[in-house]
Amino acid sequence: MSTVSRGDVCAVACAEVWRNDGELVVSPMGTTPSVGAQLARATFAPDLLFSDGEATLVAGTWAVGSPPPGPAEGWLPFRSVFDLAWGGRRHVMMGPSQLDRFGNANISAIGDFARPTRQLLGVRGAPGNTVHHPTSYWVPRHTTRCFVPRVDMVSGVGYDSAAKAGPAASRFLDLRRVITNLAVLDFGGPDHAMRLVSVHPGVSIDDVVANTGFELAIDAEVPQTREPTAEELQLLNEVIDPEGLRNKEVRA
Amino acid sequence: MTEDEVIGRLRSGMTVGIGGWGSRRKPMSLVRAILRSDLRDLTVVSYGGPDVGLLCAAGRVKRLVYGFVSLDSIPLEPHFQAARQAAAIEVTEYDEGMLQWALYAASIRLPFLPTRAGLGSDVIRVNPQLRTVVSPYDDAEELLAVPALPLDAALVHLNRADASGNAQYLGPDLYFDDLFCTAAEQAFVSCERIVPTAELAELGGIASLRVPRWMVDGVVEAPNGAHFTSCAPDYGRDETFQREYVAAAKDPQAWQEFVHTYLSGSERDYQQAVAARGNAA
């Protein structure tokens, strides 16, 4: 009997993000979100679609990090990605370098934009993604460096920024969940502030608070993040992630 | 045409769009030809990869218009990072979809196209020239008006073309190469192989002929011209070479050696140096 690792719990927490999405294209960025997406489709969310990382939507279940065996079920070149995203039939999970209390996310640059201390990728599709379709975030290392009072460059739009920009920015904004190596969070606090939903087994509320650089909304009762079922654990270990890549990304 | 003839049609200060995506199907032999030229003060428009990195490292970029710059398998582009962190270039950073809209607006001769993408983000803060537009219909939504981005020239690399410039992609994704061409005053295609027109449709079917000659002003035969970026199905990304590029970019002396080995001669010299390295390994 295998024991449950923190990586297992995170993979299941990522999978849960897509539970009720129906027939949406999911775009998981990072290893554990990719494991979670495979797990969700193989179990409780069979209608999800996702790509091979290039331009092909692929059916079936395969080991993350390996080429998919197929079959191709659709074509999704970048030209179609923006149509899909702006039309709303997508749920992305992005990996922010900074994330703040109302869900503003930074993947562009750290420091002053005019002369960054550390240039990252650029805003990529984050501004468009967030104002058009459901967005979740994955943070493999939950620290005060990532969870900051205010991000340096708003790439993914948060609730406060969208409210300031007006109804057209808020209309389809739908920030779902933040999964970290410590906890599951959402934006169910006052004025869509970030709220602690559950802590992973072995993590205390104090651990989460100490590693978050702003005030979290915390209900009186905070449950533990659920562990994988026996079936899920078997799928993770034997089919979706036999090499345990999730356990390399997530430090307990 | 040759690469050098194409670059001879460009002038310093021009706005030049470069096709491909990240470290995929970039017109690298044309970029290398820019490095051999005396072009400077360019405004470069790109879904950026090592094209942007090389031009930044050589000091040819005045302004960069981009949604991202990445090497895909290596997320961050070291020369682009260095240029940004030294404030050596001016930048227009857009959402990726905004950049598509800007090229599309230029292509169909509209002054702007409306979108939600960008609203609420710091793209608006760092690009104070951007304006919004109010829908004239009952919804009265206030949307971002992405201004058209006309290009003086476009450089793209495709798999095949005929001698008149009918070009074809054989890989999984055209990216935005057709939009770069239609947004441009002059568009130049490099390709792996120039073939007789009759062979094009046989090779990939009619739907792969997405950059026809009315979009194109010149064609260059450039075998391995996208190296070290990918050019599926002709070849994949040269990951070993890309790692070598990144390692060299992080150290000034190593970079000098890299330039000396690969970038100080002709395209033929470059391809020979790359091949020699393969033989040695």
Automatic annotation (TrEMBL), chain A:
Pfam families on file: CoA_trans
Query: Could you name the domain of life of the organism this protein comes from?
Result: Bacteria
Family named by the database record: Belongs to the 3-oxoacid CoA-transferase subunit B family.
> Could you identify this protein by its name?
CoA-transferase
